[in-house]
Amino acid sequence: MSSAGKLGKSLVLVLSASLLLLAVASGVLAANGTLISQLMLAGLIGGALMMLLPLPAFFSLIVVVTFLIQGTTSYFLRFQPIAWLPYLLCALALVRVSLRIRQHDDRFRLGGADAWTASVREPAIVCVVLYMITILFAITINTPPISQVVVGLKNALPIWVAALIVLRCGGSSEFRDLFWRLLSIVFFIQVPLVLYQHFVIVPARPDVTTAFDAVVGSFGGLIEAGGANSTLVLFALLVMGYELARFARGSKNFSRLLLFWGVGLVIIFSGEVKAAFLWIPMTVVFVLRKKILSSAVALFATVAVVSVVMMGMFVAYSAMYWSKAPDRASGDMVERMAYFFDPYNVDPQTGEVSRGASIGFWVNDAYTDTPRRLAGYGVGSSRVSTTGGLGEVAVRFVPFKIAATGIAMLLWDAGLIGLFAFVGIVVFGLIASIKAARSPGISSIEAARLDALSVYFLIALTLLFYNTSLLEDPSTQLLLAIAVGYVCATRSRLRAGS
User: Fold this and answer.
1) How far is the C-alpha of 403 from the C-alpha of 377, rounded, in Å?
2) What pLDDT score was predicted for residue 110?
3) Is the C or the N end of the chain the one with fewer CB within 10 Å?
4) Mean of pLDDT values over 330-356
5) What mean pLDDT is predicted for residues 115-137?
6) Dihedral over Cα of 169, 170, 173, 178: its sign
7) Torsion of the alpha carbons at 311, 312, 315 and 317, rounded to the nearest 10
8) If we measure between CA atoms, which residue out of 96, 3, 20 comes closest to residue 53?
9) Under a CB-based contact definition with an 8 Å cutoff, are residues 483 and 425 in contact?
């Protein structure tokens, strides 16, 4: 028997013995233990069982839990601690990936060891490593409270295991097909959820000015306070961009394109996310850029279609949302955009700050020395957490919520080095996806997938100015990690000629 087979058999024996011991312990705790201890034990049993799953199945579990289960549970059952589950699954997956590496399983290599080595040398992956090093260095020099460190590291590190899984499994066409099928399934599941939220939950909200923030699909939040509505739109546009790219690259199934875009627009129109006015044209223009620039007629037709869609969206938003909230009226849009960028616009009563002001706090802070300008105060220092409480920097600026944007949070937590590293992840991911899509040996379906991921990277850049979801929302973070792993694995696979 090979060493890999012996290791696999030993793993099964160890896990079987562990399950037996856990079963005995569960019987004792079921009779005498507390609810907390029983839940912890259930987690241990579940974790042991998950170690027996094939890596693609484990990956599918992470996707389903992150995009469907954790958000729906936190929203409808008001159980916010479940947001930890995707991170814990990714941490557990690291053990599973490590076992695959130790077994030298060729099915999870990218055309051999050389291709694997090349994939981890991609600039985007190098930036991920630099970002992690900066975070750990900032913790070392600042020694923040342990609760802040635990919560901060939970948000910053485990999710990147998903990128490692995709790097390991990305050489398999079955694995890639599985991922995109999962996205389509999650996409269609959003429809009944957003319609229920739009027609049932929103009318019951007392504040009409923020009521439509409650339309979040399965991506989480609070019924009373809203949540990940921007993540919902981002996810919908990723799938819509993929279908548009497929059609642009030769697919003749126009009815499929109409279906996905019709469903996607229903999802987007069900809530109010003003960024959609930027993201929808960005998606269309990027995916169709070659056709648009091929002739004046194509350019004119694209501008006309996008304009009609935007006007329709503007009219729909005005009728459904802004007419019910005078301060969000369409005539007030310019003033609201000015508020968005105003570096001095803060509200001492509510603690709300504009996006520009969130960065202004860091620029004008007299207490931040050079080392902390470069490496920050450590993860979690600028955020308000129900688990970890106020970060050490956030305490200084009470009542203001200084971490209003991803850029502001990165500057406080990881400094300029961390900010540049994180932006580098997105930028180099975008460059890698564009280059891979242009490779002569790539199939049209894979090129369309890379086009869709390019759209995601473009939107992710704007998200850094828009909110903190790339640093705190597990669904948005998982998409980023998967996108980085996917494009880097594709680049390595193309170099290896497989």
Assistant:
1) 13
2) 47
3) N
4) 61
5) 86
6) positive
7) -110
8) 96
9) no
Is the preceding omega at residue 144 within 30 degrees of 0, hence cis? no
pLDDT at 259: 96
C-alpha dihedral sign at 11, 17, 21, 24: positive
Q: How far is CA 425 from CA 53, 149, 165, in A?
A: 30, 23, 17
pLDDT band, very low/low/confident/very high, at 398 (cuts 50, 70, 90): confident
Residue with tokens 């450590």: 378
* Pairing mode of beta strands 226-227, 221-222: antiparallel
- Confirm if 358 and 120 have CB atoms less than 8 A apart: no
Is the distance from CB of 409 to CB of 156 less than 8 angstroms? no
**Contact (CB, 8 A) for 355 and 465:** yes
Label residue 415 exposed, middle or buried (CB < 10 Å: 0-12, 13-18, 19+).
buried
- Sequence-ordered list of residues with C-beta below 8 angstroms from that of 484, at least 6 positions apart, any chain: 124, 125, 128, 163, 425, 429
Tell me the two tokens of residue 298: 């194509």
Q: Which two tokens stand for residue 182?
A: 């999962």
In three state form, how does the secondary structure of 272-338 look?
A: CCCCHHHHHHHHHHHHCHHHHCCCHHHHHHHHHHHHHHHHHHHHHHHHHCHHHCHHHCHHHHHHHHH
Return the structure tokens found at 171: 């050489």
pLDDT of residue 39: 56
Which one, of 8, 60, 9, 46, lies nearest residue 165 by Cα?
60
Mean pLDDT of 46-52: 69
